[in-house]
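Help needed: design a sequence for this.
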């Protein structure tokens, strides 16, 4: 007999409530630990900044200090301070960036002679001194030295505390579920507790079944085994991507590595959207394959796909052009493209390809040993041909389309990049197409490239040209769905195929990028959705899906919580977190707006609330489907 703790709605609800409480306690302790540094910190310093006192010890000599971030590839040096503002043998103050190491170059006031150069990694809210002086003991006349005046505490401490809190909760939940499944523990509970209502199962993630559902434990186990229509690993993967996306959209605690990369390269924030596109492609194949097997006509399914795409696009327009309580929205500067808009177009194209060319395979699928490694690819060669045509179009438009005032095939950020030669060429052909087709006023006005590269041209990371590679990304996810159908109930073959695809795409990425951030043929770039970005993120996606599939659907050592619940209501969670972003309890006024601890607490609480909401909706069997 299986029973549940009386009076407890769910162990998972309790877990989430405890999570929120512990996060607040942990983050508040981190806040107190940072209090000392906050009180000593100059009021004008912000996150990712440090104070630099500049001391001029040169007799009868003034200079200019230039700086350049290591993150800024082939960038012009920017002016940090000019010693003309103070007399020689005196000091001045400047604010320096702490996100990445920087190079300081000290030149004479005329700018023609370099006095010295120093490479250094400043720490957030630190207090440093730069001494520029004459050194008569060496052949070098001028030397530069940085001295630490005040080095604050570890700025990443809040995120470390939060990590261990979540880890402890997940371990506790896992161990609790394990022990509650033991017969000895259940027998002891039966003796200690007189169950009046045992309508809930402790170890069930399928909701609250009634008494008729509990008549046979074997029947419940058979249901999970015999009806793998909805793989938990897919919803878990989708939910994992979505929850990270919500967290980084809310601010990620103000940490730079939870924000999008300025141009080439990857941060944590750059991973999640492609994974969401990937798993959408997987779901497309499983869903359409199931409906075609039930006898639905392809024409009828096409209209359903088209209507869903239109709905997604319109919801996307509503989400990214929010003026809910701020007066009327001007149609002259409405942004057209966005995350949901790209999802809608990608969904439409991939679904149409599937409806046009897919073939219903017999069940079970006969194994052809003569072409074993390609037997889940060759039957779908028309789809692959269309994908190759689309990718060829992307390559031709990217590298052959003439862009006024810019070199053909330009992939740079513009601004101060490329030594300032092409300041208005952000994104090359991709940016030019968006500005030409959509208009500059309807393109994203604050791209991440202006953070480091000081770009001034509007650029949309969800633009038209990048949507082609978004389709390719979804199609690779579609291939994952084909593997799951083709090798149904053959777990070893599924895992081998996922791993093979991951290695194959990883090799392509290594060739395209030359295993470097900026020096490859096609760098990894989220703003452009470059080919190497697609292959790299697809490599990660296949590998991560392989791990989740192994843990959730093969070994069943993990039920997918808490990500599974959000994955079941992904559209609602995404739209909801965007619409209610600035409302309590998702946001409140902080005592110190430059505290990572307070930002992290707010963002984690907001994200956890959406996990809790998705869990409650799951238990209530409420799902927003379009």
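Sure. Designed sequence:
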């Amino acid at each position: 007999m299986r029973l549940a703790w009386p009076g407890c709605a769910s162990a998972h609800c309790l877990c989430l409530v405890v999570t929120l409480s512990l996060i607040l306690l942990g983050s508040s302790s981190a806040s107190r630990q940072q209090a000392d540094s906050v009180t000593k910190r100059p009021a004008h310093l912000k996150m990712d900044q440090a104070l630099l006192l500049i001391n001029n010890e040169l007799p009868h000599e003034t200079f200019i200090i230039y700086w350049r971030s290591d993150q800024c590839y082939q960038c012009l040096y920017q002016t940090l301070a000019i010693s003309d503002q103070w007399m020689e043998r005196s000091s001045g103050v400047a604010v320096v960036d702490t996100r990445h190491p920087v190079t300081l170059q000290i030149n004479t006031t005329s700018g023609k002679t370099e006095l010295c150069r120093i490479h250094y990694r400043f720490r957030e809210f630190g207090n440093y001194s730069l001494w520029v002086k004459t050194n008569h003991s060496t052949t070098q006349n001028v030397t530069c030295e940085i001295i630490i005046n005040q080095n604050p505490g570890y700025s990443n401490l809040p995120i470390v505390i939060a990590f261990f809190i979540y880890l402890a909760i997940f371990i506790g939940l896992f161990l609790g579920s394990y022990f509650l499944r033991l017969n000895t523990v259940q027998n002891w509970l039966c003796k200690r507790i007189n169950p009046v209502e045992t309508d809930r199962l402790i170890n069930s993630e399928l909701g609250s079944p009634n008494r008729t559902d509990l008549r046979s434990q074997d029947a419940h186990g058979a249901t999970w085994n015999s009806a793998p229509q909805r793989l938990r690993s897919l919803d878990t993967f989708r939910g994992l991507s979505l929850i990270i996306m919500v967290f980084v959209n809310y601010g990620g605690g103000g940490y730079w590595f939870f924000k999008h990369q300025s141009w080439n390269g990857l941060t944590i924030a750059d991973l999640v959207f492609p994974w969401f596109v990937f798993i959408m492609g997987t779901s497309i194949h499983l869903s359409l394959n199931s409906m075609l097997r039930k006898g639905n006509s392809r024409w009828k399914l096409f209209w359903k796909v088209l209507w869903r795409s239109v709905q997604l696009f319109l919801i996307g327009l509503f989400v990214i052009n929010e003026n809910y309580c701020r007066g009327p929205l001007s149609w002259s500067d409405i942004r057209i493209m966005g995350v949901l808009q790209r999802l809608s177009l990608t969904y439409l194209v991939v679904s149409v390809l599937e409806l046009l060319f897919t073939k219903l395979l017999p069940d079970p699928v006969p194994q052809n040993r003569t072409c074993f490694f390609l037997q889940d690819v060759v039957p779908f060669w028309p789809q692959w041909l269309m994908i190759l045509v689309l990718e060829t179009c992307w390559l031709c438009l990217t590298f052959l389309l003439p862009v006024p005032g810019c070199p053909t095939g330009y992939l740079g950020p513009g601004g101060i990049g490329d030594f300032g030669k092409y300041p208005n060429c952000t994104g090359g052909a991709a940016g030019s197409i968006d500005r030409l087709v959509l208009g500059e006023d309807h393109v994203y006005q604050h791209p991440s490239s202006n953070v480091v590269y000081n770009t001034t041209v509007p650029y949309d990371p969800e633009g038209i040209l990048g949507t082609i590679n978004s389709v390719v990304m979804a199609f690779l996810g579609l291939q994952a769905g084909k593997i799951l159908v083709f090798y149904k109930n053959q777990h070893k073959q599924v895992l081998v195929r996922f791993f093979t695809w991951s290695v194959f795409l990883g090799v392509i990425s290594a060739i395209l990028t030359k295993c470097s951030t900026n020096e490859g043929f096609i760098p990894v770039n989220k703003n452009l959705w470059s080919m190497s970005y697609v292959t790299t993120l697809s490599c990660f996606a296949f590998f991560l899906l392989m791990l989740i599939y192994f843990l959730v659907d093969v070994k069943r050592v993990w039920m997918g919580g808490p990500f599974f619940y959000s994955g079941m209501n992904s559209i609602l969670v995404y739209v909801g977190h965007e619409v209610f972003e600035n409302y309590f309890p998702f946001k409140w006024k902080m005592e110190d707006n430059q505290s990572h601890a307070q930002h992290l607490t707010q963002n984690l609480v907001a994200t956890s609330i959406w996990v809790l909401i998705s869990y409650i909706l799951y238990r209530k069997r409420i799902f927003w489907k379009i």
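The longest strand covers residues 49-57.
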